[in-house]
Specification:
461 residues, alpha/beta, 2-enoyl-CoA Hydratase, Chain A, domain 1, OB fold (Dihydrolipoamide Acetyltransferase, E2P), 3 domains, 6-stranded parallel beta sheet, 5-stranded mixed β-barrel, 16 helices, 17% strand, elongated
């Protein structure tokens, strides 16, 4: 008979094993993308497809609802789809969802493209890279007078936009040709940012299926033959288990730290933590917290499309604010640091993709926090300047102290205890133990003193 506590442990292990069980061979693995496509969603989908292959699944189903995302993350997902040895079906659902921008590319790259009624796709024009808020112009717009006459005169911004649009158009045309879908509309979605409803997309052969729900899509796909990695595969998904893989802790952590606002806050915590640790060594809390935060921030920034001039301005601004505590600049370094930090935060993220901007309110809040720190430092400096000095020569002269001992051979000379040290003192009149004297000057290692109270009466009783 097993003890009660051991049986409980075994039951817990069995329960954990059943919850974390992998997909059965021949299952359909379901992955979901809801929101902006970034490093976290790319990591989730790429690892999810690899896990489905290891588990022997026969189909990966990606449910999509996204306004778009980063180009690097989108291409990582598409590379995984094209290299997948099992078919991948992308399904825009539920009703009201969309596969805009990066979502359209992923839909075109998938072996199966499907949409639910009431959904839409398109608007796949690449967002201009540069100062946040800079509008993207289609090629041909923004030319001067010479451009109207056919002369080739384009600004650098127009040339860069044309390169991005042409590259994106060629990319999506290649995906459309590979999957046998409408390449003309795909290029139009890139160049003119047009969109289609689910019904129109099916009519124009942009997608393969229109399904009311997930069960309807699986019924339509049952028995279909698809080619994945050059091999024809026939789906037998009637009655096959549907396994949903939710984002794990790694994906959730990556989603948090790759938020540009969180990355900026982590950078501030990291630098200030190290600053306080170096200025007050010994506690270790600032160094540990600052080091971890700074490493996480740098890891997040290398995954994001950052402007390194913005990173440099932020670090320079924080360095100026920290230097204000040590250098007598009377606020000049601190104010300059706040200005550098604000400009750096404004240009930090080098894309206009929705969901990857830094709110102005956060920038202002962090700037005001740094300004408050500067004012606190200046306030402490002013108080310290006005406070009477209690150490050094200035702290010695004027001090009141009691005579500890008197030399027998010279009654005008003796010793006192002052500032934790033993000093030899010299008076103009004879001294006595316990007498209160005032320090009037310092001569090397000897202090000059004068009596504060009256000398004792001579003789008598």
């Amino acid at each position: 008979m097993l003890p009660g506590w051991l049986r409980l442990c075994l039951c817990a292990l069995i329960l954990c094993g059943s919850v974390g069980a992998s997909a059965a061979p021949g299952a359909v693995v379901r992955l979901q993308v809801d929101g902006v496509i970034g490093p976290a969603s790319a990591d989730y989908l790429v690892r999810g497809m690899a896990k489905a292959v290891d588990e022997g699944a026969q189909l990966v189903l990606i449910e999509i609802d996204t306004p778009g995302g980063l180009d690097t993350s989108m291409r990582a997902i598409i590379k995984a789809i094209l290299a997948s040895p099992i078919p991948v079906a992308s399904y825009v659902a539920p009703g009201g969802a969309r596969a805009a921008s990066a979502g359209t590319y992923i839909l075109y790259a998938s072996h199966v493209a499907a949409m639910a009624p009431g959904t839409n796709l398109g608007a796949a024009t690449p967002v201009a890279i540069g100062m946040p808020g800079t509008p993207s112009k289609p090629p041909g717009e923004g030319k001067g007078e010479a451009g109207k006459d056919g002369a080739a005169e384009q600004s650098p911004t127009d040339a860069m936009t044309a390169k991005q649009v042409n590259d994106a158009a060629a990319y999506i045309r290649g995906l459309a040709t590979m999957r046998g879908r409408n390449a003309e509309w795909a290029e139009q979605a890139v160049r003119e940012a047009v969109s289609l409803s689910a019904e129109e997309a099916l009519e124009q052969k942009v997608i393969d299926y229109l399904a009311t729900d997930l069960a309807d899509l699986l019924r339509q796909l049952d028995g279909k033959t698809l080619q994945a990695a050059g091999v024809d595969q026939t789906l037998a998904i009637a009655g096959a288990p549907l396994i949903s893989h939710a984002p794990d802790w790694r994906t959730r952590l990556l989603a948090v730290i790759t938020n540009p606002s969180v990355a900026l806050i982590l950078m501030m915590i990291g630098v200030y933590g190290l600053f306080f640790e170096f200025s007050n060594p010994g506690s270790g809390v600032g160094g540990v917290l600052g080091g971890i935060s700074l490493i996480l921030a740098l890891y997040a920034l290398q995954l994001l499309p950052v402007n390194y001039a913005g990173v440099a301005l932020i670090l320079l601004g924080i360095a100026f604010i920290a230097a204000e505590a040590f250098l007598p600049s009377f606020g000049v370094l601190g104010i300059g640091g706040v200005v550098a930090f604000v400009f750096g935060a404004l240009i930090l993220i080098d894309t206009d993709v929705p969901g990857f901007g830094i709110p102005l309110a956060l920038i202002v809040t962090l700037a005001l926090t740094s300004t408050g720190l500067i004012l606190a430092i200046l306030g402490m400096a002013v108080k310290a300047r006005r406070r009477q000095q209690v150490a050094g020569d200035s702290g010695l002269v004027g001090s009141l102290v009691a005579v500890a001992a008197v030399q027998a051979e010279d009654p005008c000379s003796g010793w006192v205890a002052l500032q934790g040290e033993r000093w030899q003192v010299q008076g103009r009149e004879p001294l006595r133990p316990g007498q209160r004297v005032r320090v009037t000057a310092r001569q090397g290692v000897q202090l000059q003193v004068s009596a504060v109270d009256e000398p004792p009466p001579q003789g008598g009783h």
